[in-house]
User: Which sequence fits this backbone?
């Protein structure tokens, strides 16, 4: 009996160490428990991932966890990000030098304002970011953004957004144009 108790204690001790590194053990929060709690939440809130027994494991990647000790008790809180109803396409911006017609040794390109642009599928909202630190990939090519404030299409002033949404024959003033001279 004491060996069994020691094994259980060792398991929980290992789980607490994992919690400190941000990893949730199935002993602390089993997939069945998580699924049951998520079922309760989905009646009131929009969850970031479609809820099914197959998808419940993806939630372990996006759970925000905090732990602390109070009154000699280990308290663990789990947070699931709630989402808005929009899905966004993620674009990474790359400057593409284009040769001048009059002088093929001179190239011009538009300097991106931000490295990434998120554009809603309906193209009504967007958000611009320099890195993906506020996003987490929960399955390949599917990201969840945390605390991102989106702008409506009518608010656009950024160069890239104007180029995406406006039909134009001239480069907008908000664009930063850079020139390169190629050595032959």
Assistant:
């Amino acid at each position: 009996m004491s060996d069994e108790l020691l094994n259980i204690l060792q398991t929980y001790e290992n789980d607490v160490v994992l919690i400190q590194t941000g990893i949730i053990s199935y002993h602390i929060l089993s997939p069945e428990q998580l699924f049951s709690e998520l079922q309760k939440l989905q009646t009131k809130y929009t969850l970031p991932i479609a809820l099914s027994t197959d998808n419940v494991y993806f939630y372990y990647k996006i759970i925000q966890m905090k732990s602390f000790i109070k009154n000699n008790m280990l308290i663990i809180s789990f947070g699931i990000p709630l989402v808005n109803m929009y899905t966004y396409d993620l674009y990474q911006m790359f400057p593409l030098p284009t040769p001048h017609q009059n002088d093929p040794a001179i190239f011009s390109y538009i300097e991106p304002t931000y490295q990434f642009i998120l554009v809603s599928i309906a193209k009504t909202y967007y958000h611009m970011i320099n890195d993906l630190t506020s996003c987490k990939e929960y399955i390949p090519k599917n990201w969840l953004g945390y605390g991102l404030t989106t702008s409506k299409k009518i608010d656009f002033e950024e160069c890239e957004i104007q180029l995406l949404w406006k039909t134009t024959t001239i480069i907008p003033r908000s664009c930063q144009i850079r020139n390169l001279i190629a050595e032959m």
Q: What stands out?
A: The mean pLDDT is 85.
